[in-house]
Automatic annotation (TrEMBL):
Domain TonB-dependent receptor plug residues, every copy: 66-175
UniProt membrane topology term: Multi-pass membrane protein
Protein name: TonB-dependent receptor
Natural source organism: Rugamonas aquatica
Organism taxonomic ancestry: Bacteria, Pseudomonadati, Pseudomonadota, Betaproteobacteria, Burkholderiales
Residues in the signal sequence: 1-22
Amino acid sequence: MKNSQQQLILAALALMSGAAHAQTATPSIDDVPVSNTALDSEAIKSRVVITGSNAVNRAPVQASLQATQPQSIITATFIEQAVTPLADFNAVARIAPSVGAGLSANGPGLGESKVSLRGFQDGEYNVTYDGIPFGDTNNPTHHSTSYFPARIIGGMVIERGPGNASNLGQATFGGSINLFSKELATEFRFSPYATYGSWNTKILGAEVDSGQLEQFGDARMMFNASRLTSDGYQTYSSVKEDNYQFKFQKPLGKDTMLTVFSTYNKIHSFVPDKAGVTLAQVALYGKNYSLNNDKTSQNYFGYNYNDKRTDFEYIRLQSNLDGGWAIDNTLYTYAYDNNTFSGQDASGATANGTKSGAAGNKNVPGYNKLNSYRVNGDIFKLTKRLDAGLLRAGVWLESSDTERHTFDLDWTLNVPNPKEATAPKDVSYNQNSSWKQYQPFVEFEWAVAPQWTVTPGVKYVHFKRSLDAVVNQGTRIPTTADQTYTTTLPFLTANHSINKEWSAYAQVARGFLVPDLSMFYVNNPNLSTPKPQTSTNYQLGTVHQSGNLTFDADVYYIDFNNKIASTGTGNDLVYYNQGGVVYKGIEGAATWYVGSGFSLHANGSINKAEAKDSGLQIAKVPKSTAALGLLYKDHGLYGSLIAKSNGSQYAKDGEPAAYQIGAYTVTDFTAGYRWRVGGGIVKVLKVQAGVNNIFNKQDATSIAANSKGAAFDQYTFVPARSWTVSLNADF
């Protein structure tokens, strides 16, 4: 892992050392399409903000007039002024239509959260940062408190569809949540900040911006460091997080821009590996029960904790060349290291007692679980400006190396626990895995007429996954295997500019999802060779932007095929493709500037995801979402009151009444004041206060069914009302 970081650093030094000889400037924003996940925050601002448009500049979510698929753009201003500073990126995304959940049971930003996108679950859509897809290597899921807390995010674009051929990721299947780093300041700024809130929650941090350094070739850089500590809402569930971020940009001549970025995140938290609380535990201890102070319990906090360390780095070189050509290359690496210790079963379904020592002992069982990986990649894009439009081509190259294990522990004796049936008896699994993939693509943004843009494209996917397990997960036998998945994905999008304030778009596109590493957790992996799950998206939408109103709406129909199923049990387990799901729905969002600083916002969706074989709604898909908001911003004073509702859903396929989760609504309030201070060392002061879940609703948000019976099903709930007060200063 260290070698990859060293290579990036050496490459950055080599590029910077040649700055004096470079003859090129910042690429034109016109070369970057709005639907492209490589879009940066400057492009978001230049494409979306309409001078003098109160509605557009105040909208919590909006779409671009150049959009070619349904999207929700969330600006840095909304993140800073309407979202708690504790938040993770899912807490930001949840404002958008068709985005469900996004709540942590331990309190905002104090534990991992998940969101669904039109009912697609985490792992079925992409998450990117500055155009780079990232996620776990056993399946493309994400850890919302790792890498990028909301306070270092400079904007977000949620794309509800596969996009164009140049949209990259392993799960374009369900769309993309695209995060962007903050823009660098043009003037020097030192900005300390602090937050205090419920459950003894604190954030202390500072950001230093160099401004534009003329003596160093107009280079700009930023460094941000922060620490979050909290006791957490749930019992014995404290959290400590350190985050560091560095960004550097330098023009190399007049047509080339170099960007270097790095972030490091470290978290220590007390949480059971399979979190949730049973109804019996709720009756005894309350909805915030998680861990305890009883050393004879599997829920003892000293047995349930994890240490996570992540880093994410890239070097990006953008250059305009002669003859209308431009290149954009991003070399990147990121790593995730999660060392988890846990009691065997937080639900209580597994009694104390191990297979070591005398019969009938009451020793506390548990385990140590490791998930450690590094991913290296390169994204190369080439564009050519033609009279008829813009040609784009490129390739995405990526490799990964992963170590995963679960070792059984006897917490009472603090020794390995020989609980497995066969040797090695204290190892549940111990495996290494890797992948190598490449995705070449080509597309043409064709200006058919002054008001029409049509973009056909195609992408080829070649993904090879390998496993080398001393003890394989599930089967516990030595396994060496590899499988290669390939597919060709066509794309066709169109945008019609009806007038300066109104546009319409259409999309027909294929998405895909690489099969999980779990396809290898079988006795004979050669018999489990399912094709990648694919989706065909049909979407129509419209966008309106005028001085006092921004509005967008769309309808969608998604045909999901190659759904992966399994047959057999134990060592006879085999995975294969069977059936699929039809996703369909309608979505919309609107912001109306009323006047005198006030604006109203509403968005919502009706979502269906029905299995082809039964016609029933599949699990974990909210039937609807809705958001209502009142926002104010004028003369330094700002505030927002926003309610977000999730419709009812089922926790299990087949619509069982016992596993129906009712609709729930969470209402958040934020208010702040920002003023410029004259004649002193302090330039700007900002005070902000917020209340999350102001009506203290604590509805169930999920149910994890337990194979040992409904009595051991684990529930999660909306966390209780909480508050924060923040102070920022610019020097």
